[in-house]
Automatic annotation (TrEMBL):
Keyword Signal: yes
InterPro entries attached to this UniProt entry: DPH3/4-like (IPR044248)
Signal peptide span: 1-26
Domain of life of the organism encoding this protein: Eukaryota
Residue stretches spanning the membrane: none
Protein name (Swiss-Prot/TrEMBL): Expp1 protein
GO terms classed as biological process: protein histidyl modification to diphthamide
Gene this protein is translated from: LOC100825689
Alphabetical keyword list: Signal
GO molecular function: metal ion binding
Organism per entry: Brachypodium distachyon
Length: 243
């Protein structure tokens, strides 16, 4: 895979909604390595990575570095997933955790990242430990003139938790599932695979405005059933609230 320059590439690519294959129609971005820089236009594919590790593994001293930065020396068992969504299209990415990969064993936190000279990385976000697992996330990719500026996790609130016995509200803003009911090592029955809803904001290289973020915030009031119906049967998280 193109990302061979990243230090953590002993790690494996886990799962991805879009396959790193030949350029899809309308895709003018030839950069497939999440640790290289690109400038995108609407309709391009954009490659970014997710690294899983303990939260302190993403820091050197008090500075959070990109997982692409060799100084970080992310050790095993940090693990990597690479995605290539289409810019300005609403996508739901999944990392299947029922068949071996355990985010808790990998350290419990994830960071989204892309770029090298123009490196952007999200803050580490809590995914899972032995008691609780967060399975649904919203990631906003913010561009300025086609360059990624920022990646941030948006808090989804605890609405999806209410009235469900196996769900717990963390810090009044994140809905989590009891890890012992999750499939995988825990022998539970619930599919707690990670689902990440993406939204794009800012401008592309022609200064066209990316507005899938606007669409996501509006659509959430209604229903994303059509978009997500292929995974609705298996994802357990708060995406259920849309269906
Ligand atoms: C798991 O994480 C939750 C939320 O961050 C925390 O409240 C809890 O104490 C942690 N449990 C263990 C066993 O580390
Ligand atoms: C994860 O993989 C299992 C086994 O292949 C499958 O049954 C399940 O539907 C998958 N979950 C998601 C969310 O894709």
């Amino acid at each position: 895979m193109a990302a061979a320059s990243a230090p953590l590439l002993l790690a494996l690519a886990l799962a991805s909604a879009s396959i790193l294959a030949s350029l899809a129609a309308g895709d003018t971005n030839g950069v497939y390595d999440p640790c290289s820089d690109s400038r995108i236009q609407r309709g391009d594919g954009f490659t970014f990575g997710l690294a899983f590790a303990g939260s302190s593994a993403f820091f050197s001293g008090s500075t959070q570095l990109s997982p692409c930065d060799r100084r970080l020396n992310l050790a095993n068992p940090s693990q990597l997933a690479v995605f290539r969504p289409k810019v300005d299209e609403i996508s739901l990415l999944t990392v299947n955790t029922t068949t071996g990969f355990s985010p808790a064993s990998a350290g419990g936190y994830m960071v989204a990242f892309a770029g090298r000279k123009y490196a952007a990385r999200s803050a580490p976000v809590f995914v899972s430990n032995s008691s609780v697992t967060v399975s649904s996330f919203t990631l906003v990719l913010e561009f300025n003139k086609g360059r990624l500026q920022n990646l941030h996790w948006k808090k989804d609130g605890c609405g999806a938790c209410s009235g469900k016995s196996n769900f717990i509200c963390l810090g009044k803003q994140t809905c989590a599932i009891r890890t012992n009911v999750c499939k995988s090592q825990n022998q539970g029955t619930m599919d707690c695979s990670i689902g990440i809803q993406l939204a794009f904001s800012g401008t592309d290289k022609h200064e066209s405005v990316l507005n899938s973020w606007y669409e996501v915030s509006n659509l959430q009031q209604y229903s994303l059933y059509g978009l997500y119906s292929n995974v609705k049967g298996s994802l357990s998280g708060q995406f259920n609230k849309f269906f």
